[in-house]
Design a protein that fits this description.
The complex is a heterodimer of chains A (about 110) and B (about 110). Chain A has about 110 residues and is mainly β. Chain A has no helices and eleven strands. In chain A, strands 2, 4, 5, 6, 9, 10 and 11 form a seven-stranded mixed β-sheet that branches. In chain A, a hairpin with a 6-residue loop joins strand 4 (about 30-35) and strand 5. Chain B is mainly beta. In chain B, the strands form two sheets. In chain B, strands 2, 4, 5, 9, 10 and 11 form a six-stranded mixed β-sheet that branches. Chain B has a five-stranded antiparallel β-sheet with strand order 1-3-8-7-6, with no helix packed on it. In chain B, strand 9 (about 85-95) and strand 10 form a beta hairpin. Chain B is globular and about 40 Å long. Classes of the chains: A mainly beta (about 110), B mainly beta (about 110).
Chain lengths: ~110, ~110
């Protein structure tokens, strides 16, 4: 396993369209996280899964955002009715079961809403 | 509410210099602190992880220290090289019932030949 994989790497969409991103975590990691990063800022937490259970969601995750992790493997993040303010880098990370463990990030999906 | 601050926001140094990046956090109740490197338009690469019970960690030319009581961490880079040019981010894993990381805004480092 070469690490956390995200697809696509880049996405350009028109305002109002729906988009879906995929994240494949490191295979033995049961914890998966989504973050959003805008230019010049650090990543901001969006949501967190332990196995298939979504345990926490940020207030940043509006009703237009939904995340799933069926069967506790890969995860998808969907944004409905995209807005220009959704333009950002969407980062996925995973970590193992132990609480004091290292988080590993993917290369991110750069979303541009035009 | 945990807040993480990184100083300086940007740094430009000649090759070969030793340098220190600073990270401060407002709530000392953390599980661990992680330093990351981010190249432009890329994801994050983990550099060092310091558990809350540790004082420092070393990897190659990198040394990170942690002082929980004062809410500070430093990343020391020895003998800097142009290839070290990137943004360096620190993040704390907060206690209570969450595993999320709280990030600083980063230090943008440029090392020129």
């Amino acid at each position: 396993d070469t690490g956390v994989s995200q697809d696509p790497r880049h996405k350009i969409t028109k305002r109002g369209q729906n988009v879906t991103f995929r994240c494949d975590p490191i295979s033995e990691h049961n914890r998966l996280y989504w973050y959003r990063q805008t230019l010049g800022q650090g990543p901001e937490f969006l949501t967190y899964f332990q196995n298939e259970a979504q345990l926490e969601k940020s207030r940043l995750l509006s009703d237009r955002f939904s995340a799933e992790r069926p069967k506790g493997s890969f995860s998808t993040l969907e944004i409905q009715r995209t807005e220009q303010g959704d333009s950002a880098m969407y980062l996925c990370a995973s970590s193992a079961k132990t609480r004091n463990t290292e988080a590993f990030f993917g290369q991110g999906t750069r979303l541009t809403v035009v | 509410k945990q807040e993480v601050t990184q100083i300086p926001a940007a740094l430009s140094v000649p090759e070969g210099e030793n340098l220190v990046l600073n990270c401060s956090f407002t709530d000392s109740a953390i599980y661990n602190l992680q330093w990351f490197r981010q190249d432009p338009g890329k994801g994050l690469t983990s550099l060092l992880l310091i558990q809350s019970s540790q004082r420092e960690q070393t990897s190659g030319r990198l040394n990170a220290s942690l002082d929980k009581s004062s809410g500070r961490s430093t990343l020391y880079i020895a003998a800097s090289q142009p290839g070290d040019s990137a943004t360096y981010l620190c993040a704390v894993r907060v206690s209570y019932n969450t595993d999320k990381l709280i990030f600083g805004t980063g230090t943008r480092l440029q090392v020129f030949p």
